[in-house]
Amino acid sequence: MNLDTIKNLFRSEFGGIADKFQIHDLRLIDAPFDKTPGAASPGVYVFMNDQNVIKVGRHLQNSRKRALEHIAANTGSKMASLQNDEAVRLVLFNINNLKDLHWVFALEVYFEQNLQPAIRSARLG
User: Fold this and answer.
1) Is the full-model pTM beyond 0.85?
2) How many Å separate Cα 96 from the centre of its chain?
3) How do residues 103-118 score in pLDDT, each as one tens digit?
4) CB within 8 A of 94, min separation 6: which ones?
């Protein structure tokens, strides 16, 4: 699955409110040092490479920071091995305004169900 497919899924389901989010596409190896405005905001994160979606999650304060915690924690006994993989992307769907925080929950569930990540979220089953 590629990023264009994910963006199309997002727009097809959330098109009417898509402008409430900003999308940040980062190489995982660059993500810890990225200073892009809005990348350290509440939102949904998607780890992916050219073949598949690896992990989906959300954070209600800083999605980039939370996503990177999966590397240190070696979530699923697989995430630490991604740290230096130049093919791995961290895509953030972050909200522009805190009043739209509830959409973060909806998008995480939608992505978890439709992207079929290799490492599933325990809280969503």
Assistant:
1) yes
2) 15
3) 999 999 999 999 999 9
4) 21, 22, 24, 38, 39, 41, 42, 43, 44, 63
